[in-house]
């Protein structure tokens, strides 16, 4: 029986401290769980209003009055803005100082999280800006996007009762995401901008990790060519080429992605010097992958079910040399339960898995990865937890 | 300058551990913040599927296979159900044991949170059920309700830019909340059921608080002591709180004041939402009066305002408090107003409590309500002509405020 069932059998007048504390915790937790959606919406709102940028423009500290004059918030909503900021500060998204007893205005400051939500325009306008803080607001705008993210979970109960193969996304929006990106320009832009933002920060973190992570995966000299499959507009490949100039990088993606390639300078989202050796090839990873020492699959396999993953991996295996010759497939994805024991990382991994579930993707545990590697004919693998909540998996033929 | 601004000025090759850890934390936190809405939806889904009840019916432990056969989940969705349960277990909503390396099925168990989400039907069917765990799923269904809660925040950015007085709720749904309860029977039912569920647990916690935790005596000092012989629960709905008080303090004659359309629908036996034995003396003693708190409040030793003032702006609160003051005797005669509401920043220093308080404040903001800090409460008490007040943090994230004329 569960601990709670045991508690239920206690006399009503049993030691009140334990019982009452137990129920207090339950009551608060229930509200906390039920209301947590408000935080995602509130943060999205603050980003949309440009609050991180407004704080940045004032040198990193601002009062609510400053924010009213520095954003588009209407003065009549000043009291509500204070409450919004109070909530976000309570969650550590902004820092707060002063304001006790309402006698002086609270001063809000940037934290590591809100600093990466300062828009590029605001950073460019400031002498203190640094390329090390790319604008991540686009990522947040996708993850908490009302129509294509939050609302897609509204009918999850009915979806679980239905035996069909329609995804949550299709159930909510009538079409799959790849189809919506063609018909809905705003969604397409939201997806592309989020991908650029995510790549900019995550690749930067990963490639600068000199403690045996990326340098052992990409470095060492044996790797002289790499194909980034599903590499989009090349942000990841460009980052790798910049960090490891000896590797010739190619991006393989669908024709409509390659054709819509934005200028590399904008794609990287930074002012980093562009390495002109990155090449772009249009093609279908289920048909053929250009030969290289290594194939990179970054956030690709979690979009597909096991059957499709085995097919993709089969094509990768054909594209690379044997293990003795240094061939390998490099996968960057979540390995659920792997990496930092930090509760925040574990929670983010399972939240992301649910997010991917809404269009039939999944984040796998190690034993699930092992199974598809084996079915695709690979002999061995090595997982390196990288910074963040993802891992790098090297798979050897 | 902020600490981060300082970090930005470091050389790119500065101590990698510190810099990388800093950025790692930021990256994970950003995803965590952006995706947290999924948890509310997922929990709502699990409750709708009856998962807590299915676990309960199996004696408190169940595998995913058990859950597929014990709920309406289609067998084709078994793998997805496992992932849903894995996520909820990671957040402590269910317990999980076994299942390592996928070689055996994980066994899911109930935790304190999921135990209060077991439906009443499931509890009635089980010999081990206890009245001490009321079904709180109705509360969750309101807080995370897609149309009347989650979606009302979608246009918050535009709302902040607009100078009008339309609430977020009205912006999203076209009508005010009280108006929607009249036209939308499902919403009205969701509101009433949530109120009953919340009252059932919170009043039970509060009234059983014998002072061991808070030190200040809690409910017994607020309601006990013999000086209080009558109380009016203003906005008391179907009487759940008043009945709970009357059961706990039989010497107090309790009256519920609410609007006519609320009083007309009072179902006394169902009001408490539990199978607790109704104190027939109390049930007889609790009276229901239809009226408008802005017009007149029946006289009593004390007026109870539970979750009333946070629904109104300061001007309206001062008017309500003015009517309360007229209804009670002077301080020397023991008259007081008892307010049960959040006092933001008050009570347990626990981060969970603080976070819940500010989340609830945003929730109330969507229909022009607010949760106040102590200095804000003090201001409206003063404007309404009260001389003093005393705050007792109660369990949960609310406080009891006694206000003296």
Automatic annotation (TrEMBL), chain A:
Pfam families: Dimerisation, Methyltransf_2. Keywords: Methyltransferase, S-adenosyl-L-methionine, Transferase. Residues 33-118 form the O-methyltransferase dimerisation domain. GO terms for molecular function: O-methyltransferase activity; protein dimerization activity; S-adenosylmethionine-dependent methyltransferase activity. The keyword Transferase applies. Residues 154-379 form the O-methyltransferase C-terminal domain. GO terms for biological process: methylation. It comes from the Eukaryota. Signal peptide: none annotated. Residues 1-20 are annotated as: Disordered. Transmembrane segments: none annotated. This is OSJNBb0026E15.9-like protein. It comes from Zea mays.
Automatic annotation (TrEMBL), chain B:
Keywords: Methyltransferase, S-adenosyl-L-methionine, Transferase. Pfam families: Dimerisation, Methyltransf_2. The gene is ASMT3_0. The keyword Transferase applies. Residues 154-387 form the O-methyltransferase C-terminal domain. The keyword Nucleotide-binding does not apply. Residues 33-118 form the O-methyltransferase dimerisation domain. This is Acetylserotonin O-methyltransferase 3. Residues 1-20 are annotated as: Disordered. One of its GO terms (biological process) is methylation. GO terms for molecular function: O-methyltransferase activity; protein dimerization activity.
């Amino acid at each position: 029986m569960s601990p709670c069932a045991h508690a239920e059998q206690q006399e009503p007048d049993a030691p009140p401290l334990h019982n009452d504390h137990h129920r207090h915790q339950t009551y608060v937790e229930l509200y906390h769980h039920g209301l947590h959606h408000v935080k995602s919406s509130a943060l999205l709102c603050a980003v949309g209003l440009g609050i991180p940028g407004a704080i940045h423009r004032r040198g990193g500290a601002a009062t609510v009055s400053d924010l009213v004059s520095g954003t588009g918030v209407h003065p009549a909503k000043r009291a509500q803005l204070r409450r919004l900021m109070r909530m976000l500060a309570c969650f550590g998204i902004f820092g707060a100082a002063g304001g006790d007893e309402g006698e002086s205005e609270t001063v809000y400051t940037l934290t590591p999280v809100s600093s990466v939500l300062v828009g590029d325009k605001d950073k460019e306008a400031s002498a203190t800006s640094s390329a090390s803080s790319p604008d991540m607001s686009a990522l947040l705008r996708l993850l908490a996007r009302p129509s294509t993210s939050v609302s897609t979970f509204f009918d999850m109960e009915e979806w679980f009762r239905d035996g069909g193969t329609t995804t949550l996304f299709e159930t909510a929006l009538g079409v799959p995401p790849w189809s919506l990106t063609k018909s809905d320009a705003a969604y397409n832009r939201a997806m592309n901008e989020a991908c650029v933002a995510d790549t900019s920060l995550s690749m930067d973190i990963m490639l600068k990790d000199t403690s045996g992570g990326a340098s052992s995966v990409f470095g060492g000299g044996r790797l002289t060519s790499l194909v980034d499959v599903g590499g989009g507009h090349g942000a990841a490949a460009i980052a790798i080429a910049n960090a490891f100039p000896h590797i010739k990088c190619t991006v393989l993606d669908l024709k409509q992605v390659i054709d819509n390639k934005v200028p590399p300078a904008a794609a990287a989202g930074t002012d980093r010097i562009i390495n002109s050796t990155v090449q772009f090839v249009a093609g279908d990873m289920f048909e053929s992958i250009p030969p290289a020492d290594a194939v990179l699959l970054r956030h690709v396999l979690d979009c597909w079910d096991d059957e499709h993953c085995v097919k993709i991996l089969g094509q990768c295996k054909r594209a690379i040399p044997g293990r003795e010759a240094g061939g390998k497939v490099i996968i960057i994805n979540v390995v659920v339960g792997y990496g930092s024991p930090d509760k925040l990382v574990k929670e983010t991994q399972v939240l992301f898995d649910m997010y991917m579930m809404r269009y039939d993707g999944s984040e796998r545990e190690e034993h699930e990865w092992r199974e598809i590697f084996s079915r695709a004919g690979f002999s061995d693998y090595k997982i390196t937890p990288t910074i963040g909540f993802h891992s790098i998996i090297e798979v050897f033929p």
